[in-house]
Amino acid sequence: MRNLLDFYLGQMRIAAVTQLQYRAANYFYMIGMVAEPVVYLVVWSTIAAAQGGSVGGYTAGGFAAYYIVWTLVRNMNIVFTPYGWEWRIREGQLSGMLLRPIHPLHGDIAYFAGWKVAVIILWLPIAAVLALAFRPEINPTWQEVVVFFIAIWGAYLIRTMLLWLLGMITFWTTRVGALFELYFAAELLLSGRLVPMSVMPPWVQELSAWMPFRWAFQYPIEALVGDLPTDQLWLGLGMQALWIVLAGGAALFAWRWAVKQYSAVGG
Amino acid sequence: MTVIRVDKLSKSYFVPEREAGLSAALKSLVRRKTREVKAVDAISFEIGAGEIVGFLGPNGAGKTTTLKMLSGLLYPTGGAAHVLGFVPEKRERGFLTQVTLVMGNRNQLQWDIPALDSYDLQRAIYGLDPAGYRRTRDELIELMQVGDLVRKPVRNLSLGERMKVEFIGALLHNPKVIFLDEPTLGLDVTMQRRLREFVAGYNARTGATVLLTSHYMADVEALCKRVIVIHNGTLLYDGDLTGLGARFAAYKTISASFDQAPPALDGYGEVMSTDGLRVTLRVPKAETSRVTARLLTDLAVVDLTVEDPPIDDVIEKVFNSQAVG
């Protein structure tokens, strides 16, 4: 266990150091990441103003809070993508990972977790600028702040496990871009990334509660900016834990089969 | 003590196959044809502790596939392999902490950071004791003569420098079995020699077992007493490097020196070279005694040597031979 912790800290440090080496690239990346929520924010604030001040319970200030926190949660959602598996196999990177006496999933979790540390440092000034520009309405309690901090890492783990599971398909066939796109479209609609789920029709909201996407995206945002009752706050963490176990278990099970298909063509 | 035991080890792939053109592409949408390719076909051998064995064969012979099966990267489709008593494809921690695979032109260290940072991560991955790790690392850095190169980002190193720091990273955990797949590929002659010396020294010092593939016969001749030759996935030869010529060479070379310019020697064999009063002939192996006797009888020979052809020529002949296809 101490070795694993040692590895996590080492890998996270390397990821953070690597990421911070490219300051300009980081800021361009962050600007790109901010463009999407700013578009949503402007559109929904305008609609809210046109409809007498609010849409789906969100005022302009509520939308501002939602989409500013969105930028951080979106970054926490960045994990190793299924497309990356094709590159990893083709370039022989996976061979190097398989030779190590540590499961590659640990490597990915640790690397991207370290990367997030760098991203959070870069995100703080951007969030401050957005807050000055859009005046978010946000008054979290300490409990909400604590749950939010746990929930963003829960979100990270859910998405890591889900996309790892999806990436396993690459071991059987590499041309699965269409399937990935379908997955990402469903995720976009059912996670709260496009709009808060309260703006969606009731049946979509009901459906999203049974899917993992919402717990990896909207839930952490709501935990901080919404007024979720205490039981809903803790239920959300429970749902995250459930999805981490389910998706993680499925990913590890699929890995055992997938790795037998590995042909190490790239080295 | 046997360290590597391979018993009828096989690996097959099914590859899609179709004719060129649009109609063939459309047909393949409905009915896909596949062909089984046997990359490795029931090979067996054993390697003892501390041996350095050359694993030879032309491109596509199955060398790298075998190495990947032995290092646990690939699952065999038949037969079995045991390395240090472990089944490689299970990739148990006890196995992975005792083996390493170095592939020429493949970079396993982190590209954007100095090798030293990657080495520290290796320490954590293998759970190495910090003091022992630092001692091994510094020893390897000194042996490889890389000095401050380990403090530069890996992407700023030349190919040869990268291979040296890769070697260090691959050996930090003191592996007992080392698989080397074309480790000197693309390196200049000096760098090749330095890596060879390093491998020989490491083997002598630690008693590690080494299985090496290389297309550079200089690597094999410098390091390996024993070679295993495979072709089209099957084992052709397993024995001393010196015995390879005796087994596969269909001819020998006769070098004869004369005290005066000899007449044309075409009637004795194929004249390979003439250097002053010294002539080198190539003769069929079965004819060697008879030609030698004729030369000594017919001409004023001062000195005469009979040799197997150079190992490069033998290997080329083995690879090109239809008989082994």
Verbal overview:
- The complex is a heterodimer of chains A (267) and B (325).
- Helices cover 76% and strands 1% of the residues of chain A.
- With 267 residues, chain A is mainly α.
- Chain A has one domain.
- In chain A, strands 1-2 form a two-stranded antiparallel sheet.
- With 325 residues, chain B is an alpha/beta fold.
- The radius of gyration of chain B is 25 Å and the shape is globular.
Fold blueprint:
The complex is a heterodimer of chains A (267) and B (325).
Chain A: H1 2-20, H2 23-50, E1 54-55, E2 58-59, H3 60-76, H4 82-90, H5 93-98, H6 104-134, H7 142-167, H8 177-191, H9 202-209, H10 213-216, H11 218-225, H12 230-261
Antiparallel strand pairs in A: 1-2
Helix pairs in contact in A: 1-6, 2-3, 2-6, 3-6, 3-11, 4-7, 6-7, 7-11, 7-12
Chain B: E1 2-17, H1 22-30, E2 33-48, E3 52-56, H2 63-70, E4 78-83, H3 93-96, E5 99-103, H4 115-126, H5 130-144, H6 159-171, E6 177-181, H7 189-206, E7 209-213, H8 217-223, E8 226-231, E9 234-240, H9 241-248, E10 251-258, E11 270-275, E12 278-284, H10 288-298, E13 301-307, H11 311-320
Helix pairs in contact in B: 4-6, 5-6, 9-11
- The H-and-E topology of chain A, N to C, reads as HHEEHHHHHHHHHH
Strand order of the largest sheet of chain A: 1-2
| Average of per-residue pLDDT values of chain A | 90
Which class do the helix and strand fractions of chain A yield? mainly alpha
Shape of chain B: globular
Distance between the termini of chain A: 31 Å
Instruction: Please tell me how large the radius of gyration of chain B is.
Output: 25 Å
The chain pair with the largest interface is: A-B, 24 and 30 residues
User: Could you give the count of β-strands of chain A?
Assistant: 2
Beta-strand percent range of chain B = 25-35%
- Report the CATH superfamily of the largest domain in chain B: P-loop containing nucleotide triphosphate hydrolases
The appropriate CATH architecture of the largest domain in chain B is 3-Layer(aba) Sandwich
